[in-house]
Amino acid sequence: MVKLNMILVAALVACALTVVSARHQARKLFIALQSEQARARALDVEWGQLQLEISTWLMHNRVEEVARDRLKMAIPGPGRIYVLHAQSGARP
User: Fold this and answer.
1) In this structure, what DSSP letter does residue 77 have?
2) 43 φ, ψ (degrees, to nearest 5)
3) Three-state SS for 44?
4) How far apart are CA 51 and CA 36, in angstroms?
5) Count of the separate structural domains present in the chain
């Protein structure tokens, strides 16, 4: 009977250690999951910013294309560009 009790106690201790180990592993995995979810959110924010930047660049290119093709506009040559300087006492 004592031998059976010792075997059962050993089995109980082994099961308890297995449960503790499994819970510890589950906690580590949950922390890793939260970290990766935070990283995914940060990447989503960066993706949105890049999409906004791309749309801004495309809008500029589209305006330039319409001005050049439909309106037959062109960038003036250096001899046709005049720079005006405001006088120091002038109102804006």
Assistant:
1) P
2) -65, -35
3) helix
4) 22
5) 1
- Evaluate whether residue 81 is within a structural domain: no
What are the residues whose beta carbons fall under 8 Å from the beta carbon of 86, sequence distance 6 or more?
A: 92
In a domain, 92, yes or no: no
Write the pLDDT tens digit of every residue in 25-70.
Answer: 999 999 999 999 999 999 999 999 999 988 888 888 888 888 889 9
Distance CA 38, CA 78 (A): 52
Domain residues for the domain of 31 are 2-72
CA–chain centroid gap for 4, Å, is 59
Both tokens of residue 41?
A: 């959110």
90 is a domain residue: no
The DSSP result for 2-22, as a single string, is HHHHHHHHHHHHHHHHHHHHH
SS3 87: coil
Residue count of the chain: 92
Q: Given the structure tokens 């939260």, which residue do they identify? A: 34
